[in-house]
Amino acid sequence: MSRMRVLVVEDEAAILELIVYHLSREGFAVGGCRDGLEALKRAGQDPPELILLDLMLPGLDGLEVCRRLKAEQATSRVPVIMVTAKGEESDIVLGLGIGADDYVRKPFSPRELIARVKAVLRRGPVRGDDEAATGRIVRDADSALGGLAIDPKRHEAVADGLKPAFTATEFRLLHLLAANPGRVFTRDSLVSRVIGADAIVLDRNIDVHIRALRKKLGRFGELIETIRGVGYRFKDEGE
Known about the structure:
Distance between the termini: 49 Å
Number of helices: 8
Strand order of the largest sheet: 2-1-3-4-5
Strand content: 15-25%
Structural class: alpha/beta
Helix content: 25-40%
Largest sheet: 5 strands, parallel
Radius of gyration: 18 Å
CATH architecture of the largest domain: 3-Layer(aba) Sandwich
Number of strands: 11
């Protein structure tokens, strides 16, 4: 069986060596580099299963690296865990907003880091609560513009003939909500189901992803409703 590949992007040699050592001990095939441009080149040529990305990199910083990774078709679905000394909430929200899947603060324990890596890799397809969770979801199919279709098997959604570029987390969130129309999900529930119980939990995590989803969905963004003081739901077909 081939080993899952992780690319570690870290400019501090000692930390890079530490991460590579511990991930290798856990059975991962680990590659490392120390600058953003090299990371983009290596990820584009041979996309790994996951990228651990430092924010404070020489030249091209981690935020810009993440933006470019998510903008390229070959790497847009590769999960990214940001590993950085920047621990302010604003930095975390910014990282999540541009597509990062999780965020680990320095200093960290190797055990914590490995747990985060495994948690992100375990998520896989979105989990719903009924048969619709594994099937194609279509809304407003009679619309002259084309309607909305969400296909989990292809990991894509088509809105009025366009295919927005969703991050993995955004797509899981969209599919979970759309597969359960009318059901209200609390923010904590969405974090647990879509981001993962081991992720850093902030009230604003889900809000950032919802704003991004609404923008990318265009007129269909209004189908995602805010339930004040509770969370979110996807508008039911008959409403």
